[in-house]
Amino acid sequence: MMKKIIIGVVLAIVAYFAYGVLTTRSHSPLDTAETSIGDLSVKVVYCQPYKKGRLIFGDEADEVLVPYGKYWRLGANEATEITFSKDINFAGNPVAAGSYRMYAVPNVDSWEVSLNSQLGEFGYFEPDYSLDVLKANVPVQSAAGELEQFTIQFANDSIGTQMNMMWDKTLVSVSIAEQ
């Protein structure tokens, strides 16, 4: 009898977590941002959380969703991944062609945006920081309006592209150009 109870409890716990994992995409849908400039193509795969009336960026004591000075996966669910078809300059720093896990440590005036070679991980868990291939500090700007859903978009220009990460009233742009 005790064995059946234990099995029942274990199955209930597994079902609860499976339901959470299977329905998480309805709360933070998967999206892809892509651009091409000449022979260079850039692709970002990430999940888009919604603001839903919550405080997004700020001090941890204020019970914000993304506290200053802490790891953030740049979205929700799986780790955000970025792929470059050619060697590029990312915020002025050289990066080899390939795919990388991308994450940030937001602060009031700048974000430290990092590229990491650890792929295929669930984004909630911090990466192995020894596998970081680049860390770049980029300034924070005020967005034109308030954005309900976290969004990554590209804006091409004559030099390359700006990868714009926007949420709430915050905009962070990272320059990407061929080497």
Describe this structure as you would to a colleague:
- The protein is mainly beta.
- It has one domain.
- It is 15% helix and 50% strand.
- It is built from one helix and eleven strands; from the N terminus they run H-E-E-E-E-E-E-E-E-E-E-E.
- The protein is globular.
- The termini are far apart.
The dominant shape is globular
Number of folding domains?
1
Order of helices and strands: HEEEEEEEEEEE
Give the helix/strand class: mainly beta
CA-based gyration radius = 18 Å
Summarize the main sheet: 9 strands, antiparallel
Which oligomeric state applies?
A: single chain
Helical stretch count? 1
Low-confidence stretches: 18-25
Report a brief summary of the structure.
With 179 residues, the protein is mainly beta. It has one helix spanning 2-27, and strands spanning 30-37, 40-47, 57-58, 66-67, 80-84, 88-90, 93-95, 98-106, 110-116, 132-156, 161-178.
